[in-house]
Amino acid sequence: MDLYEFEGKALLTRLGILTPRGSFCRDASEARTVADALGYPCVVKSQVLTGGRGKAGGIAFVEGPYQLPAEVQRILELPINGQLPAGVLVEQRLPAGRELYAAVAFDASRACPVLLFSPRGGVEVEAGAASLLRVPVGVDQLPAATPAWVTARVSAGLDAAERASLSPALLEAIGRLLANLLSAYCEHDLELLEINPLIAYGDGLTATDAKVTVDDDAFFRQPGLVLSERPPLGELETRARQASLQFVDLEGEIGLMANGAGLNLSLLDAVAAFGSSPANFLDTGGGASTAKAYEGLRILQDRGRRDPRVRAHLVMLSLAITRAREATQGIAQAVREHPDDPVPTFAVVHGTGADEGRRILEEVGIKVAPDIRTAVEWAATAERKA
Q: What is the DSSP letter of 374?
């Protein structure tokens, strides 16, 4: 489960991490009260459980009280990726500073948390222009992951120019913050705790944004993290949750499905690098059964049938935990039952039993690519059937 930004910042505040002063508001009247107390200029930010707020117009810089009501009302009525906001976050507007990036995420390939840091945050990270330092923290290393331990590894991982651009005091502050994030990640059953941008003012750090994802299976242990009601799930999201699939609806042209979060992220990056856009994120999990693979493709089919922008489905399978026959037979069954699907399906299959998996998919007319680059190219240039 994702947290709203204001909920993520409440967690950061409890950790002792500085955030801009501000409050969550449900309407223009509450926003005016908060903004008048903070002073102007201020920032009004849409509180939605999706990305792309800035590009969609969900963030406004307000110079004075005369602008506030119209901007708040505009944002409250603005859907972003199909979601209307739960409210707005009204915050003080901070002066410009150096933008950094810091996060803790789960690394499926290493089966452990990884600390992420970049001395160039903000849009550079979002655009993939900034290289990320990755510091894996194995289970046996968690007790030793003190601020000093983290600082040493961050310092050692940066190149000479990057290290020279950070003062020793700022490096220590970064190490303390990352160690703090790691402790919270473990204590609160998180899958992701991300700050972008993290603003450096001299040797001090302020988190101007927060993205937090809680493990769904452990959420019952973390009720205190949620401070606002969630919007009701849509039909596809409900079906995905019932089938134990991770599904996020987006607004692009290629429907994606993979058996692992890391593979899905690779697909998202590959699609974006080719100049196209994803219609969704759908993770069947590393040990996907026939039933989960079947329902996953059925969700893609139903979504693509309703959205004329979708030009292709793209499935990526890495067969390690997942057995080739189980995963591919579910997909093949969905294709056999719905041969009139107007959206063509492409696939990439690697790993143990890949030859059998490719054969099963090709027998039902799915075109299987030799690599992800080729598959993305096919999907991005495909045409819907009449």
A: H
